[in-house]
User: Fold these one by one.
Assistant:
Number 1:
Amino acid sequence: MSIDIEQYRCRVGQFNANWKCKAHKSITIHSRRKMPISLLQSNRSCFVMVCVLFLVPALLALSGDVHPNPGPNTNDSQSSVSTPHSESSITSSDSHKSQNKHLTMVHCNVQSLCINDENKNKMDLVKHEFMDCDIICITESHLPPNIDMDKIKIRGFREPFINSRNAHGGGILVYVANTIHADRLDQYELNVECIWLKIRHGNTSFLLGTFYRQPSRNVDYWDEIDTSISMATTSGTPNIVITGDLNDDQLKPGGKLIMVNS
């Protein structure tokens, strides 16, 4: 099911909480009487709340030296202030991927990239959320088979590996940084909705399998997934990483476990 960007952000918790200060219905102060302590404390709380919600953000905005997306990177050469859409932030991210000795991977079920809908298109969200990652695995892309590749390219990454079903469901995309060597191993994909890649980075190599299982699939589909993974274990590459969305709660009784031959 396709959802727009606002619904998606609500689901992943990226909307800030809205704080509301309830005003007192009526306050009457009689002459020659001291204001009740509880009333003073209440007004003081409201004043502090107003300062936190409005004054502090305003001062931070006026300071001009607050990074819009701070992170753990302490390298001064990459700490220049830039907006998420600026060219400098993209260049810095490309440099980060080329210098990092460790691989970073992420999987995200986007519930439709909505490429052909300007109001719901999530490509900008994917670019700016995951730009610092080396490998981006996306499920439920909902891309048609004849998609224009220019619409889904990300700077700093090679052309994505695609497994498209149709514009109404499923679909997998895997982005790999230009600095990393990747080969597709479609002989392991069989009739399963997945993408198998062999990743080589420095002296390390491993297999990466990205899977998507539609909730309405029958029980036999688990056997096909099991077969696909078992075949990958015979490749001679000892390290295998499996990611994706299998739409199965393993904590529920009767959950299907994938048994891979050792």
Number 2:
Amino acid sequence: MAIDPEAQAARDEIPSLKAVGVGLANVLSAAATTDMGCAEAGSRVYIFNPFSEGCLAYGKAYVPVKHQVQLAEDLAHLPQFLCAPQDLVLVPKRPAASFLNGLQQAGFIAPEFVETGSGPMALENPLWMRKWAGLRPWAWGPDSMELLAPFWMRLDDETQCDFARFYIGLAQLYSKAWSAGFLRKILVQDFASRPATKSWLCSEPEAGVAVESLDAALAAIAAIRGRGHHRVVIKEAIGLAGHNAIRLWEPEILPAQRKWLAHALEDGRQLVVEPWLEREMDFSVQLEMTAKGLALCGFTGLSNDLKGQFQANWAEAGYAQSLPSRVAALLSTNSDLAEPLHAFYREVFGLLEAELRQLHFFGPISIDALIYRASDGACRLKPVVEINPRYTMGRLTVELMKQACPGNCGVFRLINKSQASAQGFADFSGYANNVQRENPLILDGNATPKIRQGSLCLNDPARAQVCLATFSVKPAAMSLDLVAGNLC
């Protein structure tokens, strides 16, 4: 087969693909997946590498702090909830057999787990000799290209070229500047649904402005405040969720804030300057870009803390096709907006698909969005807060919901030590015992049981260092509690 010169050139520019002897770094082994749209049947390799944005932003200088490393280790086997029995999940340490047995009793499959250890995997490792149908890191970036290089060399030439093309446009998809630009395209697009959106869609000033210098940043801040919107948030264009951002609440920009801006703009990095919006709710759209086009996987509600760091996702009974019910309820006044909203998003998906085809992107991708209350008291939709070209906890929630009985709702949560302690528990084991005592699993079906109600832990409470992942299934009648913010 002839290799596309553009793809070959791109592949040659990826240092990690010039040699097979690149080890799998233990520090980056930690929890979920990325489907590159590989169509062949067979085994795929999964690994959780949650630090790709940091690596893209800072290169080799990026080093995750201890808490981040521990969180990644705690969640390392979560790809098990995304893969098939014949697939392989790379982990720092294999989950305990007793813990896996409990998950299997709840109907979740156990794939093959392989421990990466604390250093490079030997070149004679038999894994390198097996043929693989696809590679699925949590995120594609410099770190995962290096981590999975030995497996990558066991793919056929055509699939290798697909990956090389994908890599060309990868970084810009991670950028909040790209997301802001895409939102602007949506807002000026002559959609058929445009007349119906006038009363509830945000305007262009809410999209944010990408800047590359301190003067440009100060001008963007002044422009937002000149429109009567004093509170401003500034984000590094590429960075980990909930990190690398600053809020400007004060009457004037403080010297420390000006210093932060100057430092963040070093080495040609971008910032995105946005007006602070008074959130009413967050939600996300989970998608998959395949050779056939952009496919909808489902809609999930999203709960973040005040810093923007993830807390939980929830899915209602109709998650696979319908937006969370509260979205339409907040935006509507005296009319049913469910169908106009879905018509609008179908057109957004078409526009995004065209962009992804140009970048040769395949795999999971999600859109974070929010409903905010404007100064006139009305609620409006910001349909793109940021786009994530990787697996997310929202996508994980969609996959977990496949194990819930139809018609029920589900909540995926990450619990930290402070939250467990606030409820009176000295450790995660005590918290987990209480959750499972108060919300015992109730299963339906024999050969392929599904969860009708109850809660379970997705990582081992006895081993968890800083984070416990839980999944709860509740009757559809409790959806109103979810959308009101009651995620317990």
